[in-house]
Specification:
7-stranded parallel sheet; UDP-galactose 4-epimerase, domain 1; 15% strand; alpha/beta; Rossmann fold; binds NADP nicotinamide-adenine-dinucleotide phosphate; 2 domains
């Protein structure tokens, strides 16, 4: 039995789809959800729905009974709570006899030394905690979703251009669907115990390069303005993002500008047995709809 946590979120849903697409029987998949009303599609597909909250250790222990492989999708709760929630999941998995824990970490140059360490170091704590457990683990260190580009680049970028204080920093953006496919491979094939993978595209792009790609796709000039942080925050708030979330996204932009996501390492091609979708193809598909 494979259990996916965060199953009603973007990556959880996509991973369950990828498991079904790679031939995993629905009855061998379980979804941990905290709101069963969001899980009706899973139930009708024959997937076991298990109620559980990362905050509630007992709910996790019950949910993990009979589970063989567990995918811990990092929490989206308040950042201060995330490490303790992950610890609950890992401890409950250990007590329930889970034989393999897969964790979605984060691929940055150095989580602890990052300019946004307070936002991301819970991944380092979770990783360290997993490594000292007796249960085999796999670390899937995700880069930023390609799907985040429209969310972080400003309003109506095809009309207004890209506006984000990300300097010339590059990111190997990868579509969520391919992160999910890589997860499904690790959850259904042998040989991934105690390994750490970089889940990123093979090539990293700056926002100036993204503007050039979009210009080529649309046949109009899309500009890139590496705007001021305060202007960026104001722009996001105007789009309806909360002040806290806007400040959080601006810290991501700062980390991008410092090159903290830039890498030419990627294990996705090896896991999927094919190249990742190129960013121009992803953007063409997204903006030709
Ligand atoms: N790499 C990136 O670009 C990127 C971008 C965004 C987020 N992330 C991280 O990656 C994770 C997965 O991304 P996503 O897009 O799938 O996020 P998402 O759509 O927000 O999903 C997060 C999932 O975690 C569940 N969750 C949150 N707190 C929980 C708790 N206390 N107990 C049980 N479940 C809980 C949520 O449950 P509900 O459905 O009930 O809310 C949801 O299913 C995020 O949580 C975040 O840590 C990464």
């Amino acid at each position: 039995m494979i259990l996916v946590t965060g199953a009603t979120g973007n990556l959880g849903k996509a991973t369950i789809n990828s498991l079904l697409n790679n031939g995993t029987d629905a009855k061998d998949i379980a979804a941990l959800v905290r709101d069963e009303t969001k899980a009706t599609a899973f139930k009708s597909n024959g997937i076991q729905v298990k109620p559980g909250d990362y905050q509630d250790f007992e709910s996790l222990k019950i949910a993990f009974e009979g589970v063989d492989k567990l995918l811990l999708i990092s929490s989206s709760s308040a950042i201060v709570n995330r490490f303790n929630q992950h610890k609950n999941v890992i401890d409950a998995a250990g007590e329930a006899g889970v034989s393999h824990i897969v964790y979605t970490g984060f691929d940055m140059k150095d989580l602890q030394q990052s300019s946004m360490a307070e936002d991301v170091q819970y991944h380092a704590y979770t990783t360290d905690y997993l490594k000292q457990m007796a249960v085999p683990y796999t670390l899937m260190n995700n880069t930023l979703y390609a799907d985040m580009i429209p969310i972080i680049s400003g309003k109506n970028i095809l009309e207004n251009g890209i506006s984000i204080p990300a300097g010339a920093g590059k990111v190997p953006f990868l579509p969520i669907t391919e992160m999910a496919e890589a997860l499904a491979v690790v959850l259904t094939t042998p040989g991934h115990e105690n390994k750490e993978y970089v889940i990123a595209a093979e090539a990293a792009f700056s926002f100036a390069e993204i503007a050039d790609i979009l210009s080529e796709i649309t046949g109009t000039t899309i500009t890139y303005n590496p705007t001021e942080v305060m202007v960026y925050v104001g722009q996001l708030v105007q789009q309806g993002v909360s002040e806290d979330d806007a400040a959080y996204l601006s810290r991501f932009a700062g980390a991008i500008a410092r090159g903290e996501f830039d890498t030419n390492k990627s294990d996705v091609k090896q896991l999927l047995g094919r190249a990742t979708t190129s960013l121009p193809d992803f953007l063409r598909n997204l903006y030709s709809k």
